[in-house]
Amino acid sequence: MLVLSDLGDLDHHDTGEWHPERAARLEAVRRGIADALGPGGDGVVAVTPRAATHDEIVRVHSSRYVWSLERLAADGGGELDPDTPVSTGSWDTAVLAAGAGLAVVDELRRRGDGVGFVAVRPPGHHARPGIGMGFCLLNNVAITAAALADLGERVCIVDWDVHHGNGTQEVFWDDPRVLYVSMHQAPMYPGTGRVSETGGPGAPGTTINFPFPAGTTGEMYRRAIDDVVTDAARAFGATWVLISAGYDAHRDDPLAGHALAAGDYAELATRVAALAPGAGRVAVFLEGGYDLAAVRHSVAATVGRLTATYESEEGPTHGGPGAEAIAAARTFRERPTTAGPDHG
Amino acid sequence: MAELGHIVVGVDGSENARRALDWAVTLARPAGARVTAVHALGLLDRVHEARVPSASHRDEIAEAFRSEWCAALDDAGVSCERIVVDGTPADVILATAAERGADLVVVGERGTNGGPTRELGSTSRRVLEGSDRPVLVVPHEAA
């Protein structure tokens, strides 16, 4: 069973015709889900996105930033940075994107079964407490993780977007209730996510980064989970697993240089879902991914594997560089530091 | 009296950034100050009027930055360096200024996304708000 929240006609975040983070991405996601579950949507429980409340958003973001973002949209829009446009509809869309994850988790908790999929934009994992960036306005996965943590849950976030989720890392840097894991390309935007970044003094070892070089295949992503993350999540005692599912590590993506295929996301989904202690405790959040066909096939592979309905024709990839990052992450697991990035 | 020993200037290939670099050199030369020109590699960039993904054009962007966008440094007669850093422009400029102990930060009013308007761009506004050292914002009309 797939508990799905899809923005649908509620998406009014206009980034302009040239921008790769565009509304057509959600249509690609819908097609991918249909590929996996059939055009009739058998096995889908549709959850209407709801707006996240101010109190839910400020668990993660500063009131000042929330106010300024709402004001910017209301005043006709603009940009947070050269990558990140804001349109008049961006605020309403962003709070729905943030609330969609909360609605999915509420439904999963009620049912005690199924897997969640949060098909929303703008993405969220670059959004820092005090400012959005990198196409992201509000940090959708962090807002849901913070809500779960306040309910007493221990949340593992696995971020397989090709860019480091600097915003999510910053939100939970010193929070021992959340384990944040990122596999990403480096060097690349946003410049954070070194293997030495392992959590703040109040939460040592609760951040794990795998900065992989260009050309990395799915094998290294799988090995990162098998060799490091599985034991870390078990030691952490994760009770929920949230996936920051960017699909821009796919070999066809125009914004990055990793070499995954759709089938790799099926393998990753299997492994990451297994980190949860039982059914109804896994939710997938759409992050990046800018080649529409790659997004469609990769979403189909993810959803198909998680619901046991579909297998991708694109098999998993093997070989390539990246083993050094896994070895280094393992070393830092044994000797965590609190030396981190400048979150200022 | 404050001394001007190091200037950090943000450069993105825009006309405003070229003016900002000119001002940085103009101020640095008589003071004997060092100039650090910095370009932030975001998710997207603009090279030769085309919007491009930064990751797949890293070398091309770095070459344009060093040879074209920073051409004013070539025979400026000032000590200088040119660096490219991954990140959001305001964050990169502020971090570079802090790391190098800059005495002054210089930015254009608006970057490659901005036209000839008097409104501050997102980068110049955030640098002004976030800087703990003097900032010079060079307006579009400045010559």
What would a concise description of this structure say?
Chain A has 344 residues and is an alpha/beta fold. Chain A is built from ten helices and ten strands. In chain A, the strands form two sheets. Chain A has an eight-stranded parallel beta sheet with strand order 2-1-5-10-9-6-7-8, sandwiched between helices. In chain A, strands 3-4 form a two-stranded antiparallel ribbon.
Describe the protein's architecture and organization.
The complex is a heterodimer of chains A (344) and B (143). Chain A is 37% helix and 15% strand. Chain A is of the alpha/beta class and 344 residues long. Chain A has an eight-stranded parallel beta sheet, with helices on both faces. A two-stranded antiparallel sheet of chain A has the order 3-4. In chain A, β3 and β4 form a beta hairpin. In chain A, α7 (218-236) runs parallel beside α10. The longest helix of chain A is centred in the N-terminal third of the chain and has 22 residues, at 90-111. Chain A starts with a strand and ends in a 10-residue tail after the last helix. By secondary structure, chain B is of the alpha/beta class. Helices cover 34% and strands 26% of the residues of chain B. Chain B is built from four helices and seven strands, in the order βαβββαβαβαβ. In chain B, the strands form two sheets. In chain B, strands 5-2-1-6-7 form a five-stranded parallel beta sheet, with helices on both faces. A two-stranded antiparallel ribbon of chain B has the order 3-4. The model of chain B has no long low-confidence stretch (mean pLDDT 91). At the A-B interface, β3 of A face α3 and α4 of B.
